[in-house]
Amino acid sequence: MNLRHIAWAMLGLLFAVPAFAAGEYRTVEIESLRITIDSEWSVQAAPGYSPVRFDIMNLGDDRTIEIFGQGSRWWSTGYSGSSQIHQTLRLRPGDRLRLTISMPVFGDNENVAFQIREHGRTLQAFNYSGFQSNKSPAESAALIVADPASPLGPMAAGWTREIPRSAYYGARGATPPRLDFILDPARLPFSWLGYTSVRAVFIGPMEWSQLAAVQKEALLTWTACGGDFMFVDGDLNTLLPDAGIRPAGMAEGDGDVARYYFGRIHFLKSADVNAKGLADTLSTTRALPEDSVRALPANRSPDWFSFPERGFRLPIPGVEGVPVRSYMAILIVFSVLIGPANYVFLWRKRRQVLLVLTAPLISALFIAVLAGYAAIGEGFGIRGRAETFTLLDQTTKRAATRASVSLYAAGMAPWNGLRFPRELAIYPIGVNGRGSHERESLELTELQQFTSGIARARAPSNFEEIGFRTARERLSFNPTGGSIAVVNGLGANVLQLFYRTGGQVYTLGGPLRSGEQAAMHAGGKVDSEALPAKFQSLADRQSDGTYLALLERSPFLETGAPNVEERGSFHLVLGYAGDGK
Hints:
By secondary structure, the chain is an alpha+beta fold. The protein folds into four domains: 1-134, Immunoglobulin-like, CATH 2.60.40.10; 136-166 and 175-300, Rossmann fold (3-Layer(aba) Sandwich), CATH 3.40.50; 324-377, no CATH class; 378-581, no CATH class. It is 19% helix and 35% strand. It has eleven helices and 31 strands. The strands form four sheets. Strands 17, 18, 20, 23, 24, 25, 26, 27, 28, 29, 30 and 31 form a twelve-stranded mixed beta sheet that branches. The longest helix is centred in the middle third of the chain and has 25 residues, at 324-348. The chain is globular and about 95 Å long. The termini are far apart.
């Protein structure tokens, strides 16, 4: 550990107490703008996103303003990093915008401050918000949504857990702050990404009825992506009155728990939570082995920190990493030629004055050699490997996807960084699973664009992604005599397919190209041993009306860059066929 790392580690300790601050909630008026910032959130968070909510009203003329956030993060290992986030807003007279800025968090300590700018001038600077991130699920806060006037309101304060004294660095004898936090329904984020940093969300029927449609959708999307939605003293009909939007296979157990894509909806009684406490209530969720693969927070997955080789989360066939020895050999030769060899040669010729010409020429020659070596040896493309799992419900036409991705940009990094949809959760996990140490710059004006912080030229890039979207992709099954005809409408070639119906498994005789039809025949079964360990239970417990499809590529994967050459990828789809048509 060098002096720089030691200095940052000491600075991180100085910020240990402010890290428990939960942010700020206030309104300011400045130059015809009324701005409310709400950055209060969990004091201890899992890796994911932290939401900062803005309510901006323009009382003046047309204008364009910018929301600019700048922060820093530390790890207990002594490493540090910085972050920058930006979004441009265009306002007409009388416009009122309510939006959520979702900020990636994955350091042991995070600090961030926001500003409102116009034409490069700072109109308003807000306070720094600090908190601890990169916590395990058990150490991460739960959110309780409570209206003081509702039945849940008076009980909520008694449910929150205290941060263990062993983890609190405040003054000696001081009472540690509460781990869990309570918010009024109106203050919930408009984006699901912010919930990725909490362990669970508790909400009652009255609070649910007070949410705006966009807030309800955000909570349900987070649940679909793996969250634990705790509906206290409520039922399924209150939560999802339209049976048409309920996913297939939703019922589970005795009715107290319902599957919702990757997530779970828990129907709790407030009396039971009062008796058991929040910690015991949370400990009973997600008991099945496959749940850890899909559940949020994302670091509940058993392979979150598992790197077969340091550098690449998924080793890419044919990519051995940066050819350090070759580059060093070229640089050593360059140093000898441009220095001693060049000088001795000109000295013998009595032409030392030509050094001003030969040095630039030798430099240009070696730049060409390095570029040629990189182009011939590695090319300029981006190679990648992905492992994806998608749950596709053809009845509701929605799909939840979870993926691990490793990229290697041989010649140069993508000129505009990696670009993702706004509502896709991206986890830059770096080269060790603890988070990227690179300077992170995130542009949110149009997309979720990481202009820096994930991909670098000739360096391993790793990230996890989780998403939920409308999906028109499907497989159509039609019984024809003793076989089943299948039409591939997934938009990708199917390598293997297993469809279960009537207690039998039907399989394909070979690959099925996109848009084509083939016959499936009864017999055979999924070779669960051929699947990665975390997916084996899916094959062992496949239910009627579902299929398992191994794809050549995944239409549900976002790599962030065009024309990525995939090598050795694994794409699995668990599909609910519905009526099969």
